[in-house]
Amino acid sequence: GARPLASPAHVPRQVVVLQDPMEDPNDILHARRSREKSYVFDVAFDSSATQETVYRATTRDLVAGVISGHNATIFTYGPTGCGKTYTMLGTDGEPGVCARTLVELFQAIEDASGDTEYEVSMSYLEIYNEMIRDLLNPSLGCLQLREDAGGTVQVAGITKISAISAEEVLQVLARGNRQRTQEPTAANCASSRSHAVLQVTVRQRRRGGGLRRGRLFMIDLAGSERAAQTQNRGQRMKEGAHINRSLLALGNCIKALSHRASTKYINYRDSKLTRLLKDSLGGNSHTVMIAHISPASTAFEESRSTLAYAHRAKSIRAT
Q1: Which positions in this protein are listed as binding ATP (predicted)?
Q2: Please, what is the average pLDDT of the chain?
Q3: Please, which residues have CB within 8 angstroms of residue 185's CB and are 6 or more apart in sequence?
Q4: Mean pLDDT confidence for 230-259
């Protein structure tokens, strides 16, 4: 019963136009102050975009960097029910960003010159209620973050699996997804209540040369909607507060990084999520955020805050 409010502008394909559902054409006082707002991004997709289109425009170019020793991070961000998990994981018929990136990664390694050895390892975890769970071995319980001698934040005791093919990684991924914390809310009957973080590490060793390491993070964030939208009570309500707290901490880091000149200190320690992503946000990392919104008029507030959040993330300048 809602009407569509958001659409990518046809020219150029980078602007998202959001109309205010409360705008009254008979309001003479505010007649000249349109509450229609435009947001500019690198690329905007409408509902007809395919998984392949989204992958090629957002993530495909990161693979070469990871193999040559850079870090890369892909986020999906937005309210519950807008398709974050679909974009990241997809279905058997329409695989998502994760599957396509891994297939391309292993293909690039196969095509690389013969005097280089590659070793690929991966871990898969979820951050739920500010606790870290290993999705490949949930019986390990709650894990802790530790900083190694080089200043890299690691999860102590997490399961790391060596992989030799994309198929193997996708099987492990499917196994991990079955362990994810999901609960029905009023916004989505199979809502992911946790942030899922897939980390793929590629080590490259040339004969007679040094070792290079590139890390690829693929992150399916939990839904960013307001509590009123989910009609949550009790445990779900507490859960939502933890989700929103970690997303707020992420937002604060993004804000501080995008106004680097005026901010000396960036508070990564506010949540487990931001501590884990310290190198991905402010280090030598290529970072992509795929923001999802519902074009429905009933989701106007969520859409507006998501577009503002993503717009701010766009102004981060990594070192």
Answers
A1: 78-85
A2: 83
A3: 80, 191, 230, 231, 232, 236
A4: 73
Quick check: is 4 in a domain?
A: no
Better pLDDT: 262 or 188: 262
Residue 52 identity:
E
Query: Is 78 part of any known ligand binding site?
Result: yes
Cα 97 from Cα 61, distance rounded (Å): 12
How many folded domains does the chain comprise? 1
Kindly state the average pLDDT of the residues 59-72: 91
Residue 235 has what pLDDT?
61
**C-alpha span between 94 and 96 (Å, rounded):** 6
| pTM as predicted | 0.85
User: In this structure, which amino acid lies at residue 61?
Assistant: D
Residue 113 pLDDT exceeds 90: no
Strands 71-77 and 153-155, how do they pair?
A: unpaired
Residue 84 assigned to a binding site: yes
The two structure tokens encoding residue 83: 């398709």
- Domain, as residue range, for 215: 67-182+193-224+232-253+262-293
Is 85 labeled as ligand-binding? yes
The answer to whether the annotation marks 80 as part of a ligand binding site is: yes
